[in-house]
Specification:
By secondary structure, this protein is α+β, with helices and mostly antiparallel strands. The chain contains four helices and nine strands, in the order H-E-H-E-E-E-E-E-H-E-H-E-E. It has helices at residues 10-16, 46-54, 111-122, 137-145; strands spanning 25-29, 58-64, 67-75, 77-81, 86-90, 94-102, 127-129, 149-159, 162-174. The chain has a five-stranded mixed sheet with strand order 1-2-3-6-7, with helices on one face. It has a two-stranded antiparallel ribbon with strand order 4-5. It has a two-stranded antiparallel sheet with strand order 8-9. The longest helix has 12 residues, at 111-122.
Length: 181
């Protein structure tokens, strides 16, 4: 069994696991091809593409029969996270992985792991991480099974239109021992 180390991100952990061959074609898209991803993910908008362009992001996609079936974005700097309604700072030596999507017909094929490996080949040694939301019970249950340690939390509260951001970092703690509220 693979075990997550205390200072290892979940993405770094997945990159260390053995990888089966991938049937869909994996490709990295730059800004000149961002438009190809629109329509392949219900959670991606033209506004997102504009943000990714400003952040010098890369998009890694899996395609089959000229259809994008999975995608994930890797970016850094002041990253706008629409789910938080604000920016989060990602240092230059790290990449935030966001807006990941796999078409339902292609789930269970470890495509996110393949996409992460493709990015890792472009930028070896780059620490990659992402945000997992308290409402995503399926992902949280899977992360508990591999004994993920939580090391921080980002949150945003809106009161009467005013935004209150809170960023916390703490010593690694088992995910199921930390409140997600």
């Amino acid at each position: 069994m693979c075990r997550l180390e205390p200072d290892q991100s979940i993405i770094d952990f997945l990159m260390a696991m053995p990888l089966e061959p991938c049937k869909p074609t994996i490709e990295v898209l730059g800004p000149d091809r961002y438009h190809e991803v629109l329509g392949s993910s219900p959670q991606l908008s033209a506004a997102d593409l504009a943000h990714f362009d400003m952040q010098e992001s890369l998009c890694v996609v899996a395609s089959e029969a000229d259809q994008i079936v999975a995608s994930v974005w890797f970016t850094h700097g002041e990253v706008y996270v629409s789910d938080l309604g604000r920016t989060v700072h990602v240092p230059a030596h790290e990449r935030y992985s966001g807006r990941a999507y796999v078409h339902p017909d292609f789930r269970g094929q470890m495509l996110m792991q393949h996409l992460g490996h493709a990015h890792r080949k472009l930028q070896p040694g780059m620490r990659m991480w992402n945000l997992v939301y308290a409402s995503n019970s399926n992902v949280l249950a899977a992360l508990n099974k591999i004994e993920l340690n939580l090391t921080g939390r980002f949150s945003t509260t809106f009161i009467l239109g005013m935004r209150f951001a809170k960023d916390e970092e703490f010593d690694p703690q088992p995910l199921d021992a930390v409140s997600t509220i």
